């Protein structure tokens, strides 16, 4: 796209300014950069961390590899140390983890090195002018003019201030706003900029420095250190301290070199690592600066044809390294909006009103993200400085035990929402986590829908308790069960009473529980007053089979480790004792709670060990299908043996859990595969378990569907009211004449409510994947599919089908098409 009639005046040859210039040049938009320094990249003692969200944009403008090469050593180890240099917490293999998940490493280099790389990539360097300090800016109806201290003037379509926290462009913008629209800028903004911390940051060079590829944080009370290693023999360092109070606006102090040296002497003997003191770094420094650390997001980034970006609009503390990276992001956002507007403009020029809309769109796009990251940076700085007794306790005693998974989830919220250039190709970088602009839509929270889902599962649990236990008490079922246990005989319709077996395990407490369960199950299995009861019982258990499979798989997910979902056997025991219709909604609500964040829906957190996936189907067959078959197997002798089979069936969920673990370990031991090489995992190992999981889902879904077909066939043969008689609990609270009828009502209620809860859980899962942008199946389409599935193949097979589809969706690393994919 060529747009020579539209010209951008960029004030400041900073990271924001030069990255914007490079983006504009790639899109054929005219520009000029006005830099106040005599050279483009002076050494001011600053280093910069370039992270995944920044490198991704730099990759689009061919700057990523030069930056990585210049840095030499990507961050591979992250250390947290106490005031004595003792290790509190560490993260090994950081480079492999961050690159695998987000496609790019984290690197540190001199700020001037990054600026030099950006400058060298600009083809027409005549557009970058030195020694051009801005003096005044004038808006006119169709253009804007910048006057510099050299007496030169530059006229363009817009002015972009990339000139830092003490931005002259912002001052001039405020003056223009005061003259033309006094209400545009809040007068309090001039004194709103806060600074609580100050920092000596520097670059040291020598043999004694940080270990290469490391990033070390040293926590202390009211001060802290950040020490990244640099290229060659360089070490970067930041000594941050609390100034004792928060200063605002013009009251923010500026420090002399003497004050810097005095502060350095105070910390001369600080132990940073077991072998490194602060004095070692300060004595070998080649550059250093002592400055305050303002942190703020300005309420207005623009006025008419003037806009500020980077530190001039959103200023970060340096601790999290997001200042420069978000400056690049805002430059990309401005480029995206500007290019889109110019493409739709036939004349090549934009009115002041149109430009104002573009600028406001950029601020709307960026403001929430930078505000959140700045708050996160401030919170992290307070933690590192242990500003309160609570923060001191957290730093010393909680931080060492924070699971790695929590940190990785935070990475997603830090990096994945990052901006990219819509119009430039996105280089292929294998990664585990899709960026938000690569998804079908930007993820959003559940909001009120989440609350309604929790309420719905709570209501279903309450309804189950009422239908299973309250109704059974009212209609006399539990009285008859109690009487049968006391009488040691079970009354069956049309038969003499069957003696209740007293011993199953020899352990009296367990035998008592089994006696109760056998009393409940025997009428459903062997003695019925309703010809549909046996088929209903088999159908019910066949529908439970896929649920057991799903709960078992969820128990092995990395994302569910150390949660209540990690123990399917526990849930199995609970629903065998209290009814699955009561326990399943509680499980589903727990699952809902743990799956609220975007980080839950990543390919690596989805995977289960391949050996577990291989073991799942045999465990289900041996642990559930076989005991169920034995329980219903036609026997010629008395019902005593069937009671044994019923008792043997009761721990079926535990059998499945134990067999899955045992068979999985056996398979893993026999196979013992060679370790996967770093970098080859994404797109391969995240899908290695899929064939086995699909087979298991297809098998259990097929079994469940077969019983659904049998039920439908019985309906056709038996008449129009068969389904109602077999599945619908009529008159649950009416007095029952015999135990079999009461138990039949119990199992009907149990089945209907668990089926409803399972379908709601499936619908929530479908919507969740739509919500986080990894699926285009809306809740309406999902609801239609679930209803159709329940009619055609039954609820159990439908749940298996949903999880079959869900596994494949969750294993993908990209879903939507990046806007530049067709470029």
Please render the helix and strand layout as text:
Blueprint: E1 3-11, H1 15-26, E2 29-34, E3 47-50, H2 52-60, H3 64-71, E4 77-81, E5 87-91, H4 94-102, E6 107-110, H5 111-121, E7 128-129, E8 134-139, E9 144-148, E10 153-156, E11 158-161, H6 168-180, E12 194-205, E13 214-219, E14 223-228, E15 234-248, H7 257-266, E16 271-273, E17 276-277, H8 278-283, E18 285-294, E19 296-297, E20 302-303, E21 306-308, E22 314-315, H9 322-343, H10 352-384, H11 389-398, H12 404-415, H13 448-474, H14 477-487, E23 489-490, E24 498-499, H15 508-525, H16 533-555, H17 568-578, H18 580-594, H19 603-606, H20 610-632, H21 640-649, H22 652-671, H23 690-718, H24 722-727, H25 739-771, H26 779-792, H27 795-810
Parallel strand pairs: 1-2, 1-11, 2-7, 4-13, 11-21
Antiparallel strand pairs: 3-6, 4-5, 8-9, 9-10, 12-15, 12-18, 13-14, 14-15, 16-17, 19-22, 20-21, 23-24
GO molecular function: FAD binding; monooxygenase activity
Family: Belongs to the paxM FAD-dependent monooxygenase family.
Transmembrane segments: 447-464, 538-556, 568-588, 608-633, 645-670, 696-718, 739-761, 781-805
